[in-house]
Amino acid sequence: MSDLRDFPDASFSGVHHGPLQAGEWITLSDSKGRRHSVFLERGKIFHTTKGGIEHDELIDGPDAVTIRSKGGVEYLALRPLMADYSVSMPRGAAVIYPKDTAQIVTMADIFPGAKVVEAGAGSGALTTALLRAVGIHGQVISFERREDFAEVARKNVTGFFGAEHPAWTLHVGDLVESLEEEDVDRIVLDMLAPWECIDAAAGALVPGGVFCAYVATTTQLSRVVETLRAHGEFTEPRAWESLVRDWHVEGLAVRPGHRMQGHTAFLVTARRMAHGVQAPRKKRRPAPGAYGDDYSGPRKSDTPTDTPGTTDSSATDT
Questions:
Q1: Region Disordered: what ranges (predicted)?
Q2: β-bridge partners, 48
């Protein structure tokens, strides 16, 4: 009897149990932690500097085993986790790394059955996480401007789930020009100018829906946050980044690792107010100079401060 947990065709979880099969990806790791992604095919050999490893020695065998190359070097063979797959997948555009994917799925509150719009799809790393989170009863509608990137994303997502995911629709085109969806629960943007999509996002999101943007630079961060504020019908945006540092642990030698996953990008979230309802205005006074003569970004002239008699921060912050 097969393992009842192994139902990828029904659940599209991307997780498999039981013996390794031809057509699956595995991760081979050596004693120094170096990893290799291998697509199992009958009759093939994976070549290393320490000799080859025959795929047939792994196919039909159990997951999580060790195998020796022809040169006698031991390797750990494991089915990859989604995080492993996302960083090793073939790339068109750069991928969103697991530390940020996890933040997006949690902080944007991606839930089973959600209707999620994503732009751009890139290489499909975030798409796989969104699809797993919404499940087969949800929807992920992805937009990608470049057809070559869209094809890479399609192959990677299909490769992870083992078939075309029933909850996924991929459009080649610009979200601003092509978005026709309504009653969208979440919108996640990974693009150069997400502020250009804020009006379109506002029109598609349900009241209380979450807008999330992934941007690499401080100038992008400032522009998207201020555009959300100027729109008026989003809650006060929240902006942050995540840093991940491993620790070295050997007996009494416990210390931070020498390397860490530092800045990759900033995340911004805000929630959609009901149509026609203005969010409560920010009352904390901006930092001196924040909106001085050099500032040229989006900004409402009636932005309040908590200083009596001050009506325009740009008049006092120069």
A1: 275-318
A2: 51
